[in-house]
Design a protein that fits this description.
The protein contains three helices and two strands. It has helices at residues 5-11, 18-39, 69-74, and strands at 80-81, 84-85.
């Protein structure tokens, strides 16, 4: 498989020295060669999976609970307006 290492470096926003380009080109050729080998595998009867281990997420059920965090935080604010922080205006319109 051929590719332009300068174009790849440009797309990746990399500034490479000549010796780095040679090494990167060699590494990319190796990686792409391995992927090419994987393409030849017969996966017709293989079930797709997202993880090699048979894991399940364990979630707790959502429960609405009262929270007083906002009130505690607002109690320490220098200025508030209702249930909001009040701050000086920082954006001006033209």
């Amino acid at each position: 498989m051929s590719f332009d290492i300068d174009k790849v470096a440009e797309l990746a926003r990399l500034s490479l020295k000549p010796e780095e380009k040679k090494k990167l080109e060699k590494d990319l050729e190796s990686i792409l060669g391995y992927v090419k080998n994987l393409e030849s595998l017969d996966t017709q009867n293989i079930q797709p999976m997202s993880h090699v281990l048979d894991l399940e997420n364990v979630f707790r059920p959502d429960e609405v609970k009262p929270s007083e965090v906002r009130d505690k935080v607002l109690k320490h604010a220098p200025l508030t307006e209702g249930k909001f922080f009040k701050v000086p205006k920082v954006v001006e319109r033209e």
